[in-house]
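Morning!

This is the sequence you dropped in the shared folder:
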Amino acid sequence: MARAGASYPQVEPGTAALMDTRISAAPLRQSVGRALDLCRATGARALVLGRGRLVREVDLARAAGWSLHAVPAAALAWRDLPSVDVAASEIDVRRIFLAGAPIVLVRAGPRVVGSIDGESTGLARPALSVGARLEHPESRQGEARLWLLRLAGKVGEGMGAAVFAVGGFVRDLLLGRSAPDVDLVVAGDGVVFARRLAEEVGGSLSVHTAFGTASIEGGAAGGAPLGRVDVASARRERYEAPGALPAVSPAGILEDLGRRDFSVNAMAMALAPSAFGRLSDPFGGQRDLRQRLLRPLHPLSFVEDPTRIFRAARYGARLGMSLGVSGRAALGLALRVGDFPALSGHRLRVEIDLLAAEATARLAFERLLAWRAFKIWHGEYRASERSRRHIRSAERFRGWARKTGIAVDGGDLALVALLGDQRRRVVGGCLERLAVSGEPRAILEAAVAVRPLVRRLDRARRPSEVAEVLRPSPVTVLAGAWLKATRRARRRVEWFLSEGRAARPLLSGDEVVALGVPRGPAVGECLAALRRFRLDGLAASIARERAYVRRWLRDSGRNDPHLRRNDSHLKGGVR
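The structure's back. Tokens below.
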């Protein structure tokens, strides 16, 4: 029993007490299968490969379970790991982990004699508070957001469950940005929590019981909208196959953060009243934010979920961040694996739509082209300078369409740009991989194969001919034509979309019938002829249209009388 007033020595465990000595050396060119056999034969929990690289037995076992025995073990290695001398103190090790290192090597001279894994040692990290960043909001929406977070903490406290703001909300808070939505994680039943929170804030509640998640939309505080609030139960994830949806099970907040994509998204802010604003950053996300670095949490991150590659491009372009050494290594491993049969095409297509909706979409797509990431769609996909030009052109067309009020599907436009210079077989393979079928697939294939349409467009002599060439095609096909067209043909596409396709005769169907056109198909034929007459600048008034209908009737509708005029009579000219 401790005596009052007595002093007791504090035991400093030192590095030797913290390290795991179950470590062995292996050749750098060892395969996953052989490296795993070596671990099991020697009882090693990790292998040192060359200088500063370490591969864990747990990662080798996961890769082997996914039938990746022949992959080089070095592709799974943690790289550029810091090291300490075996005589170093715990404080020395703690400083390294606080800087964001996942693993520390322990050396005796030049030889690695052990390792310290940040996940398994349980070294406590001092918790900083970021609540002050929320305390003086500059807008009503900021005040509403602060009210929501404090309310969420109180509701969780009443349930006996810890609640945290996580992911992009915390990342953007640290960057001084305003996050559009709030992501909450509950160390307990997230669905029950979401129901109670929804009762307090109002708005509509959507529940996804199978995943333990829910969303609240439409809530407000003090007249200011709260935005979307996503709620999830804290969980761990296990991937049965590369690219498969994970199996989930309840867990604590640290395990929940450990399942995430990048260190900058693996931070949590406590919302409990007694700990409001306390930051958990177990993977060095703050350091990576300062260095503008997107770092996956482990070497197999992109293999277990290849959609993280597309997210890396999206976040990187939006936040001005890049993949570091470990990120590029994880990317290379995922592309080496190549085929992800468990990854649904729908999930891949969703990522393209999300990318296309970003203000920095062009930069994101250019990153993916530079990374050769579209090999995940098809092994023969080849990125070229033409691909990059198409992406840049798509951005200009999208900007023009937005200014003129033309509705264009951004995801479809991105696909057309990305597939525009690929071989027909690759185009078909990519669309099949993305689970695009039926009419949407036919439209995209037509938008890619637009050379004949562009040639006909260039040969058109009159505005009415331009309109007749372009009218049968949906906007996505016209966008594809714009990407590959000459400057003159581009102007014609723009004219048609902004003016030509909306051109209509002044006379109605009933009025042309009153002039003698028989009901039935002839009415549509007459109106189409009138539209051409108007497009070519010859229908200045209703009287001119009526006179034209009478001539059209005398000619029995076989020809357009105005086409027999000299081109000099065309007021609209050819564009």
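Headline: The first strand starts at residue 23 and ends at 26.

More detail when I'm at my desk.
O.
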